[in-house]
Amino acid sequence: MDAHADRSQTAMGRADMKTPSSQRKPAVIILNLFYTGLGIARNLSAYGVRIVGLSADRKGYGRFSRFCEVRFAPNSHEEPLALKEYLLGMAKEFSGAVVFPTRDADVLFLDTYREELAPHYRLAIPSHEALMGVIDKAALLRTASAAGVSIPRTLVVNGAQDISLVADKVGYPCVVKPVRSVDWRKGSNWEKVGGRKAFLASSEVEFREEFDRIASITPELLVQEWIPGSTERIVILGGYIGDNGKPIAYFTARKLVQSPEDFGTGCIVEIATLPELLEPTVRLCKALEYRGMAEVEYKKDDRTGEYKLIEINTRHWDWHRLGMAHNVNVSWAAYCDLTGEKYSPPPRAKTSASKWVADDATWSYFLAGVYHREIRVKTFLKKLKGRRQYGIFEWADPIPSVYNFLTATVAGTSKQIGRKLFKK
């Protein structure tokens, strides 16, 4: 689809499909009901919007949420064509509904079938051009550098012949990641790369050993300087970006625990007041002509005091509900922008939770850390201290957590203990 068609359909999603206030509000369709999808449903539950969650996982905890209807549908990663046909089959019933992706595969799915789906739905993804400018990490960093946003020293390695350049251009240790994350997640590639989003190479010898393992997937890799410092140096501005790169609603946060430790997802994240992240984020989004949901991640380099750009997520992320601690509902901001509603901050939240905790992932992280003697219990408990909200558990919507605890946490922990006890 050409750029003109993409812009026209994006405009239609925000203008021609607006619903007068006298009519029923457009529905919301959520692709997948894990942490992120549950959070969207809970964020929007008070606004009189019909919410439908599509899930390919018949055993998933999200299907028990009281805040949304659940329908079982094909998976965007494994059966994209089938999911497209499923959505087109729903189009008459849900004409004008807002479709929220919750995974990178969902975003790419909606972009791939944008031309066919956009006449029926409001797709909560940025324009094709902006999306491509973010998915290609090398292109993103070039745009950021041109906009005056600090980035790590970076080199694109196009084959084994370029590895000798790393020492001078970037230095060791260095971070190695795919130019496009999707390349490492296709088919069996995720297993080939060891289930990692990136890896750390401490020397050229180590880099070449790793390269030989993954070159068959793609010889093109992004190599960046390793910014020293703990997980707490990773900070985020998360929000919904409107006109001219300016957020309609946003908040800032800091990671306290992530798993895996070096290149993982946040297990414990705390709200943090970081106004210094706003200006470079606006400059970057303006340069990208970006409009939509964005989780913009930086890492503070204590050697220079700079916040260096790491990546942008182009969808809701696991802990987006943490914004409610600062009266920021990014889901409602997105819904309003896509449907023509006037956005205003939500009523003061009943809880002033300052931290978000990934229930099951944090428990697994804790058990593994204690077993391998890699964490100090006192330090870990200190990071948990304070008012908390959880990815699964919520008093107003308890069944997903009960189900997950019984079927995943207890069962999974028992299996791990059994393997350790009876390991020969």
Describe this structure in words.
- The chain is α/β, with parallel strands linked by helices.
- The chain folds into three domains: 3-125, NAD(P)-binding Rossmann-like Domain (Rossmann fold, 3-Layer(aba) Sandwich); 153-225, Dna Ligase, domain 1 (2-Layer Sandwich); 231-401, D-amino Acid Aminotransferase, Chain A, domain 1 (2-Layer Sandwich).
- The protein contains 15 helices and 16 strands.
- It has helices spanning 3-14, 35-44, 80-90, 104-112, 114-117, 128-135, 137-146, 166-169, 189-192, 204-214, 278-288, 330-339, 359-371, 377-384, 399-422; strands spanning 28-31, 51-55, 69-72, 98-100, 122-123, 154-157, 174-178, 199-201, 221-225, 234-241, 247-259, 265-271, 292-301, 306-313, 355-357, 388-390.
- The protein has a seven-stranded mixed sheet with strand order 14-13-10-11-12-15-16. The protein has a five-stranded parallel sheet with strand order 3-2-1-4-5.
- β10 and β11 (247-259) form a beta hairpin.
- The longest helix is centred in the C-terminal third of the chain and has 24 residues, at 399-422.
- The relative contact order is 0.12.
